[in-house]
Amino acid sequence: MKGKNKNWLMVVFACLLMLGVALPSMSVHAQESDPTFDAIKKKGEVVVGLSADYAPYEFHAQVDGEDTIVGFDISLAQKIADDMGVKLKIEELGFDALLGALKTGKIDLIISGMSPTEERLKEVDFSDPYLETTQKIIVRKDDLNKFKSVNDFDGVKVGAQKQTTQEALAKSELKGSNVVSLQKVPDIVLNLTNNKVDAAVLEGPIAEAYVQRDDSLAFANVAFADDHKETAIAMPKNAPELKAAVNKSIKEVKDQKLMDKYKKEANELMFQKDQNFFQKYYKYYVSGAGYTLFLAVIGVVFGAIVGGILALMKLGKVRVVRWIATAYIEYVRGTPLLVQIFIVYFGSGIIGIELSKVAAGCIALALNSGAYVAEIIRAGINAVNKGQMEAARSLGMNQRQAMQFIIFPQAIKNILPALGNEFVTVIKESSIVSVIGVSELIFQAGNVQGASFKPFLPYLIVSLIYFVMTFTLSRLLGVAERRMNTDA
């Protein structure tokens, strides 16, 4: 009996020993696994996120008559994709939306002139640096003699791009300056040329491009103590295979001095001979206007459906249903549309639903419009004299029949004019979806701004297009309203 027990103990001990050897091996294997890299190889493409308003890193240009995103970041991205043996897919977003898109799996990499700051390293991982640059201060040429050291900026308005190394540098070294943080580099330059700010802190290649294109600008002879910046590629955390593949490509680029070639190609496209401005960029505006109208139509049509349901819920007799409708309407009307767009776009990725940028924009606009349309419909129904419902019920109609044949036909005359005004409002509000990269008018104006180095003209043209669309629609609504009143 004792012998059998000893045999069992030896078997158990042997099993535990084997398990102890196997577990570390399994743990190492688990740590080395890379679902992001595996997914890239499986789908056969790497999705690179960027903000294409940052020439010469990435910007829009006409190549063989076609609008193309170009720049030395694009050349690097293509090199990485080729080395991986997959296709390159570019996902264009606002710079502020890039990290969110990476963390929610919308994109695989960020190659957009981004620096690995301490704050960013807490959220994502970075490759080895592929570019090292210095920071420059540009000023109006007439003010060149005013700025000779970092101590000359006390009380001076200094422009810098929001959430960048340049913004941090301006705040830390230009003591006493008033830093004006803006979303896009072209907006900073526009503020500088229009005397809204007196200096701008830009990355070296960007500053050189603007000074070369605008004779009224010049480099301030001011040196920062810490003007060195490393640019790297952002990627999800715990992606060792992806990081190794990207670093291998970066090493080849450095060893073969390919970045000099990429920069030369980008500069040639950036400074290509100008055609007539409108001939060169009219397609951007046509495309942007089409997307704007599409977003507005979808937003109002589906918003009317959502609004109709909410209005009936709010007019209903069931208290819980009324409370749900009221809570939704108050929440949507009480929060910014920008926040709602981010919730729909990034939130869908978190719960495993893949929405395109356009789909996310349409859904956010429809849900937002629905809350306002609900109040329009409710007010239109309430405006009908209560005696109409009583008269219908006295004739033997039930609640549904009375609403269908008596109340709604009268309410519609109150609802349609306000619904038309909602359409005009949504046309203008659709501009906010540019933050997630939907190519509507404002987004396209930013692309033209970055490609043409003209900070003011693209937005002037966009304002005229918006005016034509809304003014025409307002006049048509006025005609329709007069005819309805005549018929009445």
Automatic annotation (TrEMBL):
CDD domains (alphabetical): PBP2_GltS, TM_PBP2
Keyword entries, A-Z: Amino-acid transport, Cell membrane, Membrane, Signal, Transmembrane, Transmembrane helix, Transport
Subcellular location: Cell membrane
One GO term describing the cellular component: ATP-binding cassette (ABC) transporter complex
Pfam families: BPD_transp_1, SBP_bac_3
Primary location: membrane
Entry GO MF terms: ligand-gated monoatomic ion channel activity
ABC transmembrane type-1 domain mapped to chain residues: 289-477
Topology with respect to the bilayer: Multi-pass membrane protein
Organism: Enterococcus sulfureus ATCC 49903
Signal peptide coordinates: 1-30
PANTHER family per the UniProt record, alphabetical: GLUTAMINE TRANSPORT SYSTEM PERMEASE PROTEIN GLNP, MEMBRANE COMPONENT OF AMINO ACID ABC TRANSPORTER
Protein name: Amino acid ABC transporter amino acid-binding/permease
Entry-linked InterPro entries: AA_ABC_transptr_permease_3TM, ArtM/GltK/GlnP/TcyL/YhdX-like, Iontro_rcpt_C, MetI-like, MetI-like_sf, Solute-binding_3/MltF_N
UniProt record similarity statement: Belongs to the binding-protein-dependent transport system permease family. HisMQ subfamily.
Lineage: Bacteria, Bacillati, Bacillota, Bacilli, Lactobacillales
GO BP, sorted A to Z: amino acid transport
Membrane-crossing residue ranges in chain numbering: 289-313, 334-352, 456-477
